[in-house]
Amino acid sequence: MGTHFKGSTKELKTLNAFIKLVRSVESLNSAQSKSLAKENLTISQFGALEALLHLGPLNQREIGKKLLKSGGNITLVIDNLEKRGLVKRKADTKDRRAVIVSLTAKGRAFIEEYFPKHLALLVDEFSVLTDEEKDTLASLCKKLGLKE
């Protein structure tokens, strides 16, 4: 579905690319959300657990940056994960203003079991693309995401 906007070729191509990008992200997020809802998780909560699994303990600001979430939003995400016993917080000994977040044993067990299932969902969603197309998509998204 393209745009019905009447403008210059540059504007039309940009708008059409944007619409397709947003629609594809929304479609992927919808599939993820359905799967994550079965585990009572949001995409942000899963992202925090995945980051802690693969990167180890992080301060809350670092998690927010990785997930592109505001400080207030990431605080709520971590609050909810902490209430479920999946993460724990402790004061950063190097910076009194910062809080280090890490997985609990329960959180580690959960994300280690769940991550392969989530990855299988993504592999299935991306199966419409060849490996070369995935590389191209990754490169283009990185290029677009780095523009400031």
Summarize the structure.
The chain is mostly helical and 148 residues long. It contains six helices and three strands, in the order ααβααββαα.
Description:
It is a single chain. This protein is mainly alpha-helical and 148 residues long. It has a single domain (41-146), classed as Orthogonal Bundle (Arc Repressor Mutant, subunit A). 68% of the residues lie in helices and 8% in strands. The chain is built from six helices and three strands. It has a three-stranded antiparallel beta sheet with strand order 1-3-2. A hairpin with a 7-residue loop joins strand 2 (87-91) and strand 3 (99-103). The radius of gyration is 18 Å and the shape is globular. The two termini are 28 Å apart. The model has no long low-confidence stretch (mean pLDDT 92).
What proportion of the residues form beta strands (DSSP E)? Answer: 5-15%
User: What is the structural class?
Assistant: mainly alpha
Structural shape? globular
Uncertain residue segments: none
CATH class category label: Mainly Alpha
Can you count the helices? 6
Indicate the CATH topology: Arc Repressor Mutant, subunit A
Question: What structural keywords apply?
Answer:
single chain, 148 residues, mainly alpha, Arc Repressor Mutant, subunit A, 3-stranded antiparallel β-sheet
What does the secondary structure layout of this molecule look like, with pairings?
Layout (H helix, E strand, L loop, with lengths): L8 H29 L5 H13 L2 E2 H8 L3 H13 L3 E5 L7 E5 L1 H21 L5 H16 L2
Antiparallel strand pairs: 1-3, 2-3
